[in-house]
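We were asked to recover a plausible sequence for a given structure. The inputs and outputs are reproduced exactly as logged, with field labels preserved.

PROBLEM: sequence recovery
POSITIONS: 240
GIVEN STRUCTURE:
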């Protein structure tokens, strides 16, 4: 019996799914800590699988015109995922992946990777660069929370990368923001998709070059740092 059927059989509301770990997926396994009940064995594979689910959901929703039916499909989809409820999350956090991505409102990592509260440790800033606070945040997640994966994710049509290419006059703070993007892009490159890829790859590399802690974790095999690009039109994440 799946989670939805069980809730309906017991006469419980859908919100009851958020009170504890769900009964599906990794939560079925015995774990040392409730905070790790939803941890996948392979975080990178889990992100890829989550994005595939998100794409399938988006495609399905496009075919549904009735708003009530759309809401039901979304609710059922959420209930199918492994969740840690508030009573578990109030005790702490143990995210299984870190995402450094753009502040663009069209790029919500938790949706893009079909995850739940407590799964991802996210840092967002226009242009998804490896600025000092982003690197420090990931150092904390790796050293204090035991996180094993960091993904730097750019996205299609990134305004910050476009501004870096165009060389238009910017405010002093915006100039400072796009400086690492300009440093990552070969001089004269005008192809925006290629520049977005290069920027994500450079930010992933900078994570290691800026941080001895992250570099040591990578060298020891305790941490993987990857880069990716999210295509808004297709909802697909391509790992580089």
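RECOVERED SEQUENCE:
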């Amino acid at each position: 019996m799946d989670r939805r059927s069980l809730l309906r059989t017991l006469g419980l509301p859908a919100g009851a799914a958020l009170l504890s770990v769900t009964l599906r997926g990794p939560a079925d396994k015995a774990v040392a800590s409730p905070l790790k009940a939803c941890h996948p064995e392979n975080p990178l594979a889990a992100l890829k699988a989550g994005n595939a689910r998100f794409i399938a959901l988006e495609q399905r929703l496009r075919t549904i015109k009735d708003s009530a039916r759309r809401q039901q499909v979304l609710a059922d989809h959420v209930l199918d995922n492994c969740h840690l409820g508030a009573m578990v999350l109030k005790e702490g956090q143990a995210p299984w992946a870190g995402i450094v991505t753009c502040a663009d409102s069209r790029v919500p990592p938790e949706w893009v990777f079909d995850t739940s509260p407590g799964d991802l440790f996210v840092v967002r800033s226009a242009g998804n660069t490896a600025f000092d606070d982003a690197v420090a945040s990931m150092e904390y997640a790796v050293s204090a929370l035991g996180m094993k994966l960091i993904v730097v994710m750019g996205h299609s049509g990134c305004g910050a990368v476009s501004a870096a290419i165009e060389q238009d006059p910017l405010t002093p703070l915006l100039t400072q923001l796009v400086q690492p993007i300009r440093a990552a892009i070969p001089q004269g490159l005008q192809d925006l998709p290629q520049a977005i890829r290069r920027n994500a790859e450079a930010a992933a590399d900078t994570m290691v070059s800026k941080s001895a802690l992250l570099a040591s974790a990578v060298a020891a095999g305790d941490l993987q740092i990857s880069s990716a690009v999210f295509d808004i039109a297709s909802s697909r994440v391509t790992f580089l």
